[in-house]
Amino acid sequence: LKSTLRRTTMSTSAKRLFWISLIGTIAAVATHVYLTKHHYEFKNGQGSEGGSCNISSTINCDMTTASSYSEFFGIPVSILGGLINFAFLLFLIGWRFPVVKPETQRALGGTLKLMASGIFAVSVVMAVLSYGVLKTVCPACTTAYVLSLIVLISTWMMTEKGSLFSKLDVKLYPITAITILLF
């Protein structure tokens, strides 16, 4: 009975963590959509005056958008962030509502951990560039960084302990990279 109760509690906990991760990822995608919209408005001379994103010379989205770090090979970083978060969202939904064998679902947990870790690592780099190099705070960017931390923690806590790499990862990473490039 104690073992059954423990499994049920863990299952309930994993479900809650899934919803935290799902909502955090959806919010991250929405944040990146906003950042992309802001990026193109700024680049087209429609920079926002004041507002919640441009409070001062230090707390300012326009300063971040104007920097050379806002694009990667001419593509706004926010588009890339939005796409990888959207891909993560699809994998997350596939992990929770599997249409595959249980072994594949377990392997997908490792993929989710790696993706969440990668997204968080990029957020740390972008935060260091924003706060350390540019000496500016972009509220929307900061939201994306915090969301990546929340998703990272909830993803690691909800998935099974075990290997990060599986045969599935070898197949999924190239497919994910090609999909993102096609977008």
Note down, in words, how this protein is organized:
The chain is mostly helical and 183 residues long. It has helices spanning 2-43, 61-66, 77-96, 102-133, 139-158, 167-182; strands at residues 71-72, 75-76. Strands 1-2 form a two-stranded antiparallel ribbon.
Layout of SSEs?
Layout: H1 2-43, H2 61-66, E1 71-72, E2 75-76, H3 77-96, H4 102-133, H5 139-158, H6 167-182
Helix pairs in contact: 1-3, 1-5, 3-4, 4-5, 4-6
* Largest sheet: spatial strand order: 1-2
Strand content of the residues, in percent?
Answer: under 5%
Average pLDDT number = 80
Order of helices and strands: HHEEHHHH
Overall radius of gyration: 18 Å
The tally of strands reads 2
Structural class of the helices, strands and pairings? mainly alpha
Helix proportion of residues, in percent?
Answer: over 70%
Query: Describe the biggest sheet?
Result: 2 strands, antiparallel
Dominant shape: elongated
Distance between the termini: 50 Å
Number of helices: 6
Quick gist of this model?
This protein has 183 residues and is an all-alpha fold.
List keywords for this structure.
183 residues, mainly alpha, two-stranded antiparallel ribbon, 6 helices, 2 strands, disordered N terminus
